[in-house]
Amino acid sequence: MEHDSKPVEELQDVVIRFAGDSGDGMQLTGTQFTSTAAILGNDLSTLPDYPAEIRAPAGSLPGVSAFQINFSSRDIRTPGDAPDVLVAMNPAALKTNLKDLKDGGMLIVNEDAFTEGNLKKAGYAANPLNDGSLVKYEVYKIPVSTLNANALKESALSKKEAERCKNFYALGLMFWLYDRAYDVTVAWIREKFSKKPEVAQANELALKAGFHFGETAEIFRKHYRVPKARLKPGVYRNVTGNEATALGFIAAACLAGKPLFYASYPITPASDILHELSKHKNFGVLTVQAEDEIAAAGAALGASFAGGLGLTGTSGPGLALKAETVNLAMMTELPLVIIDVQRGGPSTGLPTKTEQADLLQALFGRNSESPVAVVAPATPSECFTMAIEAIRIAVAHMTPVIYLSDGYLANGSEPWLVPDPESLPKIPITHPTDPATFHPYARDERTLSRPWAIPGTPGLEHRIGGLEKANVTGNVSYDPANHDFMCRLRAEKIARIADELPPLEIFGSAEGEILVVGWGGTYGAITSAVEELQKEGYAISSVHLRHLNPLPKDLKDILARFETVVVPELNLGQLSLLLRARYLVDAQSITKVQGQPFKVSEIVAGVRRFIAPKKEVRSWH
Amino acid sequence: MALTRKDFVSDQEVRWCPGCGDYAILAQVQKVLADLKVPRENYVFVSGIGCSSRLPYYVNTYGFHTIHGRAPAIATGVKSCRPDLSVWVVTGDGDGLSIGGNHLMHALRRNVDLKILLFNNKIYGLTKGQYSPTSEMGKRTKSTPAGSIDYPLNPISFAVAVGATFVARTIDTDTGHLAATLDAAGRHKGSAFVEIFQNCVIFNDDAFKDVTDRTVRPDHSIVLEQGKPLIFGKERNKGIRLNGLKPEVVTIDSNQGDEGLLIHDAKNPDPSYAFLLAGMELPEFPTPLGVFRAIEKPTYEDMLHAQVAKAKQSQGEGNLRKILFDTETWTVS
């Protein structure tokens, strides 16, 4: 074998984007590349970007599906602003993705797909591979389809079936180019297609052929190596936000010693949580695919009333439908967790794209005074921790909790330092049993929460509902003073959750000129941007909010210690509106609603607008 | 000590209008709960919104007065999570068939073991008198001064069509029939749907007079009895026969006797018969009362928990460490 016959260059990090037709298997290619990068010990972050249509017409621009991975020997937090390498499996993929490729970046195209028909579908008048329009890039024209077909000549598959293996050919080539073994993918193929050995064999053959092509063909002069990252010691796995969310709620149920009851209605991008949870029935997880969003919330609330851990999941439009049930849960003071994997809106919006514009809906999208707790994970792996936190708050405070994930977190992945289950704190739950002392709306002195008395307990039979209740007895009450008292009490109950929140972590100095405040999935981009500006010498720090209602108690003081507060959000300024209202702070917004996450450079540029000129002068010293 | 009706009376003052049919239903519900011998703490009453939906406040069991139309969905959650509970849904024609029609349909087709009592008064009472999905065509109400132009829905046809395993109809004023029907529903394993003709004295008084009035009742109604021929009339001289695919009323002559009459079989696995009965309406036919359909099918909650048991058996009891680490992992030292 001519192993290592070509020189290897070491790189710190690489951003690759795989792009092709929806039918080309780009998501699979991306996740397989990710698995190997993870196992080789790179830090990584991924960004799948796929169309809402299941199969838009082949070769068309709307049918392009892409997967970006940033893998690194450093600690990274985002999938990368711009790819260093673009793998384009057809003209449409080239057309829609080329604008993002770095100048001088590597462009690998499947030359075979650049047929007249495909060029026309992508809107190219001339073939970009021949018209000189790609001179700024390092272009590799590779006839992937032909090479793949040749490699599979002996296979049992038909020509058409063999063509479908070409993504593995491309993947094999990329494995060679980045000096990584294909074993992990081979093992995956064998297991995945164990019932179709001929398909398994062909995919494996294509993968290896692609790899060896890189090694032997006189096209690439060298290949690259991205060494291991220096991560915190421990056992790691790769995880997407939706996986971590599902695992987190299962863990929470174990910690609470209660069955998890998940009712949901299929909706992008939350459906994977239902899929994942329904695989784990051996934990006692009960999953119900309800007839609609309202029923899903209702069934979950019914389960909570019955003493289970009621959980429902959805995306923005579904949260709107669940509002009335959330309000009932608030009124009856039952624990209920509502997952909202935010997507581009309003209305049906951009179902497969990301956004974080449901913050105000979560906080205020119900009739009348309806305070509920709202939490938001910051990274894909943190979805695990925040799921446990959501259940903890729900049962400790007898309240609905809205858990705001987003499409970027849900589908994005990163290495996760897996926690030891023994290290996770138990979630204590008590149900009253003594009829002599029981009152349905009696209050815990510290939290103001009411007792969770569950059916089946003799002597505690009681009725609850959406009508206003008298405190303590829980009887229906239309008394004006009682209503006023109860509205304030419910608000105070939620406010007291803040008593037990840990102090905010400030990234940077505890005081300074600029404070960047973020929440949710923008954590990686914000932190990287702030770090970059810190290196330039600016007195800039950031805080990231995981609790949106109530807000952490120390936030007020932290805001006051900075001259300017800047809030980057994937909406038109919802958190900034909240901070302005709550703290009378002149918060400045950096906003974006393109269905795409922030690039680090966008936040850097956005923050610069708020840096006073004199401060820039100072930074030149 | 055996429970009695009184054990199911709550400390709340009943606030329905004087003369409302709901009082009679409440009393029979309380009586039947005692008869069913389920421990009181294991009963759960779930309701939506409307006059009927206030019932849980008056029954001394666990109760959940929820949101308009959603009681079947919420009750599905209660029963699915806790199959050991006896879960009853109280709804009305507006709550169950208009705003909540979708949930009612799905609870019934899933065969969740819920006892669903639909108080049909053919009117919106709590909102003070608008027509409902069961109001007759042409009905003049506050919202339809020129008469309703909606074709009414037949609750029994609906329940049979969506696959309910137990479907019955009874009347608020006939306490014996009401109690027997509720009792049968309570003992049915699976979703039991009971339409109760309920008189609203304020907004739709005498809506069922055509059936319930003593003078016309024998000729205007027919009581369904398992295994017995469909006979009705003051003189017990009228019967129902099948003519092709259509039922027809025939006068029984003394020579012929019951021969050729339909024999009531609520256990017929084919729903066509129950659907045919459901379609019998005044004035052409007497209104059927009693159990239209009572078949056995595995329930949703039993199948749900059976899957959990099976998963535990085949995969072993859930182990958190296993699902967290049982994937491709790597160690950083």
What structural keywords apply?
heterodimer; A: about 625 residues; alpha/beta; Pyruvate-ferredoxin Oxidoreductase, domain 3; Rossmann fold; 4 domains; seven-stranded mixed sheet; six-stranded mixed sheet; 21 helices; about 35% helix; globular; B: about 325 residues; eight-stranded mixed sheet; three-stranded antiparallel sheet; 12 helices
* Helicity of chain A, as a percent range: 25-40%
β-strand amount of chain A:
15-25%
The chain pair with the largest interface is: A-B, 70 and 63 residues
CATH homologous superfamily label of the domain at 5-207 in chain B: Thiamin diphosphate (ThDP)-binding fold, Pyr/PP domains
CATH topology of the domain at 5-207 in chain B: Rossmann fold
Task: Supply Rg of chain A.
Answer: 27 Å
Distance between the termini of chain B: 67 Å
Q: Class by helix and strand content of chain A?
A: alpha/beta
CATH architectural name of the largest domain in chain A: 3-Layer(aba) Sandwich
Number of strands of chain A: 23
Count of individual helical segments of chain B: 12
Q: Oligomerization state of this entry?
A: heterodimer
Basic shape of chain A: globular
Overall average residue pLDDT of chain B? 96
Strand composition percent of chain B: 15-25%
CATH class of the largest domain in chain A: Alpha Beta
CATH superfamily of the largest domain in chain A: Pyruvate-ferredoxin oxidoreductase, PFOR, domain III
* Relative helix content of chain B: 25-40%
Number of domains of chain A: 4
CATH class of the domain at 5-207 in chain B: Alpha Beta
